[in-house]
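Q: A reviewer asked whether we had any structural model of the full assembly, not just the individual parts. We don't, so I'm hoping you can provide one. Inputs are below.
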Amino acid sequence: MIEYQNVSVVYRGGIRALDGVNLSIQSGEFVVVVGPSGSGKSTLLKLLICACRATSGRVMLNDRNVGMISPERVHTLRRQIGFVPQDIGLLPDKKVWENLAYAMRATGHSKRELRERVPEVMDRIGMLDRANAYPRQLSGGEQQRVAIARALINSPRMLLADEPTGHLDPETSKEIFGLLQQINSRGATVLMATHDLPTVSNFRCRVVALDSGRVVSDSMGLAAND
Amino acid sequence: MIDRIEFALSEALTALRRNGMMTAAAITTCAIALFLFGGLGSAYVSLSSYLHALQYEIAIMVPLKPTTLRSEAEAMTRRIREIDGVQDARFAPKEAVWKEWTSQPGMEKWRTTANPLPDQIKVLLKDLNKGNAVIEKIKQMPEYDPKRRIRDASPERERVGFLIGFVRLFGGLLSVASLLTAGTLIFNTVYLTVIARRQQIQIMSLLGASRSTIRWPFLLEGVIQGCAGGLAAGLLLWGCAAYIGSRTRDFLSSNAPSAAGIGTSTLILFLIVVGALLGILSAGLSVRKHLRYEG
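A: Here is a predicted structure for the entire assembly that you could use as a starting point for your response.
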């Protein structure tokens, strides 16, 4: 369970990204955070992986205050959470399967484990036939699928996706959204930040709207009406 | 554990291979810097050792009274050896000194004349700076003949003493400066490598790689670059030393004091170790910046 308790984040230079956010997300939920650029969507996600820290308030993850985790122990938290960054962040000089294998190796898995796990995850996202391609040889949607696969490689119970459909056409965006819902249906909590309201409106999910760092609405499947 | 070592090593080797130009630049920079450091360092050691050998060649000759018995001269010799700053003292009978003197080229004509020299004690110093104090103590001894002047080689002592001090100070400073230069150059090169791969570091960090997992491939990369640079510098120095040696052998007098320099294999090994230390230090410093959790 995730709980934001009166969380504010002020960046250097006095930029207020979040302003007294209170939000509770249950395990297994699919939550989409919407809002214009600069509304604090990415910051909300980054708080959970300690990529930034709350200036005030608390962020609780399974009754653990993530703000209290020391920089040396942050990796233990990040291993429990799959993160799809806004810029996809695939390593350009590694093949698709190497990008996934690298994520496993970097977190201490053996070669034997990755030989079993990598094909399994690639099959799950429908990219098994593109295993030997380099990221530059993939379409935007395929790259996003690989980024999601990489986030799933260590079997996290929670997936955070920051603008996963940001650079994609509407059809591919729907595909990616469908893939995230499929992951959620297998029990993972999914928290996704997007400003792609048309795609969100096609799916029934919890939608949290942010504006200027504040939660302005929190409802089920109301995105199409916003 | 073996798996993790293998991962770090394979990542380091892959990065070195993939960033071929950067790797070549780092190794070349490291080699040049360590070549300068090694060259200056070994020149300093050789020169310092040569000057130390030279100071033992500068002898103080103490004239004895004509009435001094051989046993008294030998007792005086033993007393001189105990003076602080004295390396050795040897009794030199006037016949032996005269024979040696007249056997030098151009001095043969004096052989037939009467020996005007007194018995002497030849004193070698281990610290040229203490020469005057040693002479003062010797002058207090009753066997010393005050009518004759002690040949104290003061100009030579002063010159060699100054050179030793100069080499010690300037050579030391130059070695430290070249080591710092080498360190800075290697740091800059590894730092550029790290900057070029900051995306990889950030991704590793976001995926949950521990700091040590992220750090080790870079450290190994730095060590490999440093070792390769050290080896190249060592081989280059060895080649230069062999060439200079072959060109100057004929000009050097065989009677010149021997300068105990650093052995080639020791020098190469030393430069490899210094390169490895510089590599790991600079890689550690440069990767640290990108390991802040906010990244």
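A: Points you may want to mention in the reply: Residues 222-226 of chain A have pLDDT under 50 and may be disordered. The two ends of chain A are 27 Å apart (CA to CA).
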